[in-house]
Design brief:
The longest helix has 11 residues. The chain is an alpha/beta fold. The protein has a single domain, classed as 3-Layer(aba) Sandwich (Rossmann fold), CATH 3.40.50. Helix 1 packs across helix 2 and helix 3 runs antiparallel to helix 5. Helices cover 52% and strands 14% of the residues. Strands 3-2-1-4-6-5 form a six-stranded mixed sheet, sandwiched between helices. Strand 5 and strand 6 form a beta hairpin. The mean pLDDT is 94. It is built from eight helices and six strands. The relative contact order is 0.20.
């Protein structure tokens, strides 16, 4: 099964707004690929979901941020990240994503982050947009 790390921003976008990130998330929930995460990425997801700007949206979709985070964690495989040197990326906040992907032997990181997308590949991990990733599922 394909092993994938999704950027936190895409997970939040999938939940709150749907669209292409929502299609990627739904494909994972339908077991078309395996979600990978780490303790650092779980903490980031929980922190981002608590932003006040999302509170009204959560009320509208009738799910709490905690319920979403818990359902995602339940669906994902929590992996042990590896060390990634700081000079690998332009933005050090991207290191946990790379560390999770390599540590979990992911084939893909799915992201909209230009700093990561410019890498295109790190170790054996392809770094792609949600649209690019969806195309790999339909081939």
């Amino acid at each position: 099964m394909i092993r994938v790390v999704q950027d936190t921003n895409l997970l939040v976008s999938a939940l709150l707004f749907g669209g292409i990130p929502g299609q990627v998330y739904d494909a994972g929930r339908q077991k078309q690929f395996r979600f990978l995460t780490s303790a650092d990425l779980i903490a980031e997801l929980r922190r981002v979901l608590e932003y006040p700007k999302f509170a009204e949206r959560f009320t509208r979709i009738a799910i709490t941020s905690d319920e979403f985070a818990t359902s995602y964690i339940y669906a994902a495989e929590v992996v042990q990240p590896i060390y990634v040197p700081f000079e690998t990326v332009r933005d050090p906040k991207d290191i946990p994503l790379l560390a999770c992907a390599v540590g979990g032997k992911a084939e893909y990181i799915v992201t909209g982050d230009d700093d990561l997308l410019t890498l295109r590949r790190y170790e054996n991990v392809s770094i792609v947009t949600p649209s690019e990733f969806l195309k790999t599922l339909t081939v």
